[in-house]
Design brief:
The complex is a heterodimer of chains A (409) and B (220).
Chain A lengths: L23 E8 L8 E8 L4 E5 L6 H8 L7 E6 L2 E2 L5 H6 L1 E5 L10 H5 L1 H5 L4 H14 L4 H4 L9 H13 L5 E5 L7 H18 L2 E6 L2 H7 L2 E6 L3 E6 L1 H6 L4 H7 L3 H4 L16 E3 L4 H10 L4 E5 L5 E6 L27 H10 L4 E5 L5 E6 H21 L11
Helix pairs in contact in A: 5-7
Chain B lengths: L9 H6 L1 H35 L4 H12 L3 H12 L3 H25 L3 H10 L3 H34 L8 H10 L4 H29 L1 H5 L3
The chains are: A alpha/beta (409), B mainly alpha (220).
Chain lengths: 409, 220
């Protein structure tokens, strides 16, 4: 049974538009080490231009090996890999690699080079003129959300983990390669920062439209990031290659069903995004406002709460009438912190999980600069889900699995 | 000490300023040659070990063995072959410098984090670009640290080379100070060795800081 588009949770990721990406094709690729069973076995896979293809699977499934054969950090034993029809084995390996962006979990920034020099590595290898390199570095730092004036001259040791990861992405994008390889790029950061980096990358990808091969062992990350997921099983055998929605609705085998987890009905929540929900405007009180002004707003709000924001419109927490005296000013300390802020790219699953943990069951949605855009409610998630989940239940039940019942909150 | 003579004779130091200057020159010359040649040879050996990692064990074993030979014994053993010459002194001194520097440069290159090497390969550096633009610059602080230890060590050993007629500050310490029981010369010689060592050590450290501004950013 195929899932018709109207049975899926609306996904606002646009369909692949002509971007700067290239088609990557693996044809009967095998990698063996000595007499051991193959690490990757007769793998054929075509990755569409401008799509994010996530390679996911348990350890030992050959996902990293597969990725590294594309830029020939590992040479296949047999088979062929092409980029836009061109056999990668025909190019000298170093030339090939300069045309492919590469991001790894530990980032691997060059500690002896400034941020500028790190980002400029590939353009310099390609002997771009200095003026063009300078321009490109500034452009890339802006693109990954770092102020060139503040960051260009810093050394990696003076950066936070998240900043390093962003520089790593900028470095990989420097020479505008059609293909990017990303090996667990967000695996070494804490969950909240990882969520942000994932969202940032999705926003970036919407602009640059590279063909991205993304390796992870985390199914949730795969569902969130992928246009298409390739699930590999031990020995580098392709278990299923399809859109996240299709894989969740119709796992091709018991292995896939097991791997995506018994809560795959619930995981479909990961296909919806906060930006799909109606935004509500909460009562807003700015730090420093007089209680006499704040109290009427709190009284007028639907649930007796107001969101406290700072001078830069960043959310600080929630207050109710009991937290404010009419003749005092509202302070940051009076606010009860809510759930971590949500971003438009946050999945409904992460949003729900964050909101259920906080006392005020509203999620604050912020933009890339942490400014408040509005709030979403648990009810809105439930409303957004009801129709599509009901509609798709038939197909999940058809696959012989009653788990979908559990996904209706 | 000879009868009726003060322990330290400032007038001797002033009178013999030109001799002292010449001895300092000799000291620096012998040390400099040993360090420069020792460093170049060690660098070559370290690159060989980097290329053929199986050499790592044997090379470290050989240098360790060499280090265990007492320096006086080595000078004496070489005399029948190369005579009482600068060559004899330098063979031994270069050997000791290499014991320190080979191990040090090999280790320095090995401390480059694997993810940095992987990133360098993934970016499309050729093998030699990776060595010269990534691995060696990152290894500089450790290499200079080894160079500082080697220089100070060789400075000390050069004073022993006076036993095979090499002059230097060892001549003041041993041939004049000890043999002729004239403590002023010993004191001046030892002081000069210490002062020169400290100055060279500081200069190397300063040079390293200038060369690797990024290493100061660590932990900032």
């Amino acid at each position: 049974m195929t899932s018709a588009p109207d049975t899926t949770i609306p996904r606002s990721a646009p369909s692949p538009a002509p971007g700067s990406g290239a088609v990557v094709a693996l044809e009967h690729v095998t990698k063996r080490y000595g007499d051991a069973p193959p690490a990757v076995d007769d793998l054929s896979l075509t990755i569409n231009a401008g799509e994010i293809c996530v390679l996911v699977g348990p350890s030992g499934c050959g996902k990293t090996t597969t990725m590294k054969m594309i830029n020939r950090l590992i040479e296949p034993t047999s088979g062929r890999i092409t980029i836009d029809g061109e056999d990668v084995a025909r190019l000298p390996a170093v030339e090939l690699r300069r045309r492919i962006g590469y991001v790894i979990q530990q980032v691997g920034l060059f500690p002896h080079m400034t941020v500028t020099d790190n980002v400029a590595v590939v353009p310099r290898l390609l002997r771009w003129p200095a003026a063009r390199i300078r321009e490109r570095v500034d452009e890339l730092l802006e693109l990954v959300g770092l102020d060139p004036a503040a960051y260009a001259g810093r050394y990696p040791a003076a950066l936070s983990g998240g900043e390093r990861q962003r520089i790593g992405v900028a470095r990989a994008l420097a020479a505008d390669p059609p293909v990017m390889l990303m090996d667990e790029p967000f695996g070494a950061v804490d969950p909240i920062r990882r969520e942000r980096l994932q969202n940032e990358f999705l926003r970036l990808q919407a602009q640059v439209r590279k063909t991205v091969v993304f390796v992870t062992h985390d199914v949730d990350e795969a569902i969130k990031m992928a246009d298409r997921i390739a699930i590999l099983q031990r020995g580098g055998v392709l278990a299923q290659y399809d859109t996240p929605d299709a894989i969740l609705a119709h796992p091709a085998s018991e292995f896939v069903e097991h791997f995506v987890g018994a809560d795959r009905g619930l995981k479909r929540l990961s296909l919806g995004r906060v930006r799909d929900l109606p935004l509500q405007q909460p009562a807003i009180v700015r730090v420093g406002e007089r209680g006499a002004e704040a109290l009427p707003k709190i009284a007028a709000s639907a649930d007796g709460h107001a969101l406290v924001i700072d001078d830069a419109d960043r959310p600080l927490g929630w207050i109710d009438a009991g937290d404010v005296a009419p003749d005092a000013v509202v302070t940051e300390e009076a606010a009860t912190p809510g759930s971590p802020p949500l971003q438009p790219e946050t999945t409904l699953r992460d949003a729900l999980s964050a909101m259920l943990l906080s006392s005020v069951q509203l999620g604050v949605v912020v933009d890339g600069h942490d400014r408040v855009l509005g709030v979403v409610s648990v009810d809105a998630i439930s409303d957004a889900l009801r129709a599509p989940v009901d509609a798709s239940r038939a197909s999940i039940d058809g696959a012989g699995d009653g788990q979908a019942e559990a996904s209706v909150p | 000490m000879r009868e009726g003579q003060p322990f330290f004779r400032v007038d001797w130091v002033i009178e013999n300023a030109d001799v002292l200057a010449r001895r300092i020159g000799e000291q620096l010359f012998i040390t400099g040659i040993a360090i420069v040649i020792g460093f170049l040879l060690s660098f070559a050996v370290a690159l060989l070990v980097r290329r053929y990692p199986r050499l790592y064990g044997p090379v470290l074993g050989a240098t360790g063995l060499f280090y265990s030979i007492p320096s006086i014994a080595l000078f004496v053993l070489l005399i029948p072959i190369t005579g009482l010459s600068l060559l004899t002194a330098e063979i031994a001194l270069v050997g000791y410098a290499m014991v320190i520097l080979v191990r040090n440069i090999v280790t320095a290159l090995r401390t480059v984090p694997p993810e940095v090497l992987e990133a360098a390969d993934g970016m499309g550096y050729t093998a030699s670009q990776r060595l010269w633009r990534v691995e060696l610059p990152i290894a500089v602080p450790i290499i200079v640290a080894g160079l500082r230890i080697a220089t100070v060590t060789i400075m000390g050993l050069v004073t022993i080379a006076t036993l095979i007629g090499m002059g230097g500050l060892g001549y003041l310490i041993v041939n004049i100070g000890i043999s002729q029981r004239f403590p002023t010369a010993t004191l001046v010689g030892v002081t000069l060795v210490v002062v020169l060592s400290v100055i060279i050590d500081a200069a190397l450290l300063f040079g390293q800081r200038r060369l690797t501004p990024w290493s100061a950013a660590r932990g900032a």
